[in-house]
Specification:
Length: 439
């Protein structure tokens, strides 16, 4: 049986990917994973569009995917390659992934365009989330590990880089995002669609994605509710301000103490409405605060947003780590890649700078090794994170230079620069629509 090397999270040169032990996947399983790779312009799976010409798997677990591009010089080929590698590398038994390119025949191009037109006519978009949005589900195996705190602070850190970030509070029973962001009031609506509540996040230095912007200590974002602005496809957002667009069940109930006694099917329907009835507009990222566990909402998300990837939150405690393994297993069974592990509450940092281990050691590292995903962040436990969540001032914005604030910004930088970079539209397949005769 093959062995799996344990990644050293303290080694900056350690590879992001470590093979997950297991037999090599079948070619049909690889094709199933590739259904989660969405062409950014045709808004459909590369499998459904006929772009996957061939898949081979060696006995050693090396996977080769041959992709037929609409044009040999397609500017999005590098993006498609990264997405294929990202989806396939996380599968058990995969030791290497290679992507070979070809060009579609005239018949294949026509069939792909016809499929795209059919999708546009019959089902303009399965959700209101654009296919160019990077979707990151923040999940945990159990409650109490700080999953919502990680979601809110990571979203704020991403927005502080001038990005437009959606925040969907899918923890329908245990919603807490409105309080953590200090947002009150009902959701608005226009033209039959719900509009999210909007939080403007200032960007002071205007640096590139991944840089930590400097700001006045204690400054908080401007909050407003209103319509969601649209930007032209392919345009790069201005960097003077980022934006959070927030949707939560907390904006729909009379009081945050109101109990929602809903069964699983109703919960899934609520998630579906948040994805199909909310006018999200163009987003760089959509962060979804998932309920703990492996229930109906998790399965529904994998079905409705096949491009979603997962970030698993745990604590140093081994009990939390063992439960979180189940979330990663559910994700892979649903063809959802686990992009990384966040160990929250690694150690207590007091105002005098002293550090104390409270919940044990090694849970995040052990989880990352067991599921074959990188340990992408260790977030310390400090009073400013807790008080910021209670007061609606996330630590990533109110105290960005604190140990926890810095850790959230470092996590955002790693996501933007390495793990899940924003998609920059260049335009290649869409041009073919103008070249083909109308149906």
């Amino acid at each position: 049986m093959r062995t799996v090397d344990t990644p050293n999270p303290d080694d900056p040169g350690a590879p992001v990917h470590q093979p997950v032990a297991g037999p090599p996947p079948a070619t049909d399983d690889v094709r199933g994973l590739l259904r989660g790779v969405i062409d950014p312009e045709l808004h459909a799976s590369i499998v459904d569009l006929g772009m996957v010409d061939d898949v081979t798997v060696t006995p050693e677990g090396a996977v080769t995917v041959k992709v037929a591009l609409t044009t040999a010089g397609c500017p999005l080929r590098a993006q498609i390659k990264r997405d294929i590698e990202s989806k396939v590398r996380g599968a058990p038994g995969v030791t290497d992934v290679k992507v070979a390119y070809g060009e579609m025949t005239a018949e294949q191009k026509t069939a792909a365009m016809q499929r795209a037109r059919w999708n546009a006519r019959e089902n303009a978009a399965p959700t209101e989330v654009p296919s160019t949005t990077r979707v990151l589900a923040v999940a945990s195996g159990k409650g109490g590990v700080g999953k919502s705190s990680v979601t809110v602070n990571l979203a704020a850190a991403l927005a502080a880089r001038g990005l437009t970030v959606g925040v969907l509070d899918a923890d329908i029973w245990g919603f807490s995002v409105p309080r953590m962001l200090g947002i009150e009031g009902r959701l608005g609506g226009t033209e039959g669609k719900i509009t999210p509540n909007v939080v403007k996040v200032p960007v002071i230095d205007g640096g590139p994605p991944g840089s930590v912007p400097e700001r006045e200590a204690g400054s908080v974002p401007e909050r407003e509710a209103g319509s969601v602005p649209e930007r032209e496809a392919g345009s790069v957002p201005e960097r003077e301000a980022g934006e959070l667009r927030v949707v939560s069940m907390g904006f729909l109930v009379d009081d945050e103490g109101t109990a929602l006694m809903w069964r699983g099917l109703i919960l899934t329907k609520a998630l579906e409405q948040f994805l199909t009835d909310v006018r999200w507009g163009d987003l760089d990222y959509l962060l979804i605060d998932m309920p703990p566990g492996t229930g109906d909402i998790q399965m529904g998300l994998a079905r409705m947003l096949p491009q979603a990837e997962m970030l698993v939150v745990t604590t140093p405690a081994r009990a939390a780590q063992k439960v979180a393994v189940r979330v990663a297993d559910m994700a892979r069974r649903s063809y959802m890649k686990v992009v990384g592990v966040v160990e929250n509450m690694t150690e207590l940092v007091l105002p005098d700078g002293s550090r104390h281990t409270v919940f044990g050691r090694g849970g995040g590292e052990a989880l990352a090794a067991e599921i074959g995903a990188p340990l992408v962040a260790r977030i310390p436990l400090e009073p400013s994170v807790s008080s910021g969540g209670d007061e609606g001032t996330p630590s990533a914005l109110a105290t960005p230079d604190s140990p926890a604030g810095s850790a959230f910004h470092e996590l955002a930088a790693r996501i933007v620069d390495d793990l899940l970079p924003p998609i920059e539209m260049s335009g290649c397949t869409a041009r073919l629509l103008d070249l083909l005769p109308p149906p």
